[in-house]
Amino acid sequence: MAGAVAVTVLLVLYVVQIAGRGASMIGTGEPVLIAIGLGVLIIPLLVIGLIAREYWLAATVQRMADTLFAEGNLPVDDLPRSPGGRIDRAAADEAFEPHRAAVEAAPEDWRAWYHLAFAYDASGDRRRAREALRRAAKFFRPARLTRSS
What is the phi/psi pair of residue 84, to 5°? Predict the structure, then answer.
């Protein structure tokens, strides 16, 4: 958490500096610099959007984990490891299949996607793990809304 906050603070400083430069360019009154300044102002907007998206995902993943913990269904990291701490690849691949099958059987079940995400992570595929977490979050939100109504 401290690392995420530190990176966010650095990004905020970056955004402030870039926005200041863009505003300075716009303030010159020169058509070319105004166009470049407007383009430069897009960068901070993108950064703010990406930061917000990542924090939203992190908060949603935490709520999903809390829900699974309350149900006694939180994934357990019990895969064998090498002396250096790396997960045994063959064991991770073997443990992956039931989670993939669960998603195929229930493609809109956020719990299945959440477990699949951690199976991807154990297998070393962080990109697909993140995609699976995003999919789980997408299905988790409607499940929470219908439950609270």
Answer: -80, -5
What's the average model confidence in pLDDT over 6-25?
A: 87
Copy the structure tokens of residue 113: 């996607």
Distance CA 140, CA 138 (A): 6
Selection from 17, 6, 76 nearest residue 41 by Cα:
17
User: Across the chain, what does the average pLDDT equal?
Assistant: 87
With beta carbons less than 8 A apart as the criterion, state whether 35 and 9 touch.
no
Note whether 76 and 100 are within 8 A (CB).
Answer: no
Q: Rounded CA gap, 97 and 90, in Å?
A: 12
Residue 121 CB neighbours (<10 A): 19
What is the token pair recorded at 142?
A: 């409607």
Q: What is the pTM (predicted TM-score) of this model?
A: 0.72
Which pLDDT does position 138 carry in this prediction?
93
* CA distances in angstroms from 57 to 24, 69, 72, 92, 132, listed in the order given: 34, 18, 22, 25, 12
The three-class DSSP label of residue 87 is strand
